Amino acid sequence: MSFVDTLRQWDEGVTSFERQDISEALTIFQSIQDPNSKIYFNIGCLHLLNQDLEAAEKAFDCSIGKDEHLAIAFFQRGITFYKKKRYEESLADFQKAYKALRGNQLIDYKALGLRYILYACEVLHNVALVEAQLGNWEKAQENLVKSLKYKTDAKLNVMDRALQSILKQNLFKPVEFPTKMLFKPNKHYVAELEKKDYLGKAKVVASVVPKDDFSGFAPLQPQIEDGPACPKEPEVFRVLEGEPHTVLFEFVPETSDELAVVPGNIVFVLQKGADNWASVVFNERRGLVPYNYLERLEISLASKKNVEVTEPPTREPPTRPERIQGLTPSDKSERNTQVKEGPTTDGLCIVKIHHTFNFAVSLPLGSTHDLLMEKISRKLNVPSTAITLRLTAEACAGNAINEKTEMEKVWGRANSGRVTLWCSIQEQTDGKPQCEIHFMALHSYESSNPEDLSFQAGDTITLLSRVNQDWLEGNCNGNIGIFPSSFVEEIPVNGNLNKSN
User: Fold this and answer.
1) pLDDT by residue (tens digit) across 372-401?
2) Residue 481 DSSP code
3) Which of 148, 150, 366, 414 is the most exposed place for a label (fewest CB within 10 A)?
4) Where are the domains of the chain?
């Protein structure tokens, strides 16, 4: 089968799938002779949708056989083995998927025709789950702690919930590949499948030049004055904004605006601050990295496509520089809003608060309970009487922090001027606990992010907390996650719907 025929059938199969005709899509994909790894992957996903686990396993075997570096295929075969309760084989595949990430925080498959991002923290999340299924609770906890090195803002909720489950030796749900995604063929190649008549039909024309008897070809003439003096810059150079640098040492972030990188990564420095912190771009994400962890990489225009990375040194990393206000990465996302505090100075302590989203406050070491609650109350914009603080993630009486708690016990947990606490909020009205708030879904909402709450139009959702003005956290049919407030309306006691926002 020619490449054009393969491309045409591939596109027809995807079109059938988008029409929700899974049977026809599967027939078309299976009729392709000598499919590539992406088509085999699509076949495996369709078999998973049909709950045909044996056929799915064989398809993912073929996909990996065609491309042994396709991490998402290992991930999907691991899911297949997990559904078949073959946990040791599932564990091996998730570990291979993690290895295929090669120390990167994520792999974005958009350039290969799949609108999906595979995160290292999600792979380790599933590794931990399978270890728990095998009864290896300590290894499960180790993998979840390891996943924190690769955490992203959007994945904190699912990781925190998984860690809490492991501490209680409870199982949790795996992160699964979304059911409505397939590898698509290159859209530019598909556009060329239709035949084009570049010459068009012959036309009779007359010259506007009197007595013009010239016949032949004349050179192309300029169409406009003052045209561009140089060709358009190639797209590949446009993404290389900033100065390229090689990462020399592993950096583990401590605040939400810092970026996790490992030796050998190439980042692009957008701005360097006076405090020796740099705002960088890595894998389409922006964040802060200590500049003394980086080394400038000289790249000529001719070699920007093929960058050779030298082996990073093995010496100890330099001391983490102190932070000053002023240098922050640009972040367009307002979802799960997080607040960054300034550096730790003499006598000050940074308190990191685990809530629906994470944030930090700074106050003098040894401060009173009232001052701590006032700071947190101001950050959350809720009365201090509605806030419950805990020393650990577990909600038990021994971990609660209140006005009777000896604050030396709290500040004694500080390490290098930092301490971590957990927080929950009880909705209140006029000083009395508020009854449960329910919403009705106006529209269906489905997301590929595992921490989001998917639901169908007409479903009832119980409010758990308000993340910000645009996002809520709720429970629907036993599932917990965050969802956009614009998709729902509140159901008051009197039965009249009110828009949530």
Assistant:
1) 888 888 877 778 888 888 888 766 667 788
2) E
3) 366
4) 3-167, 239-298, 348-429, 436-499
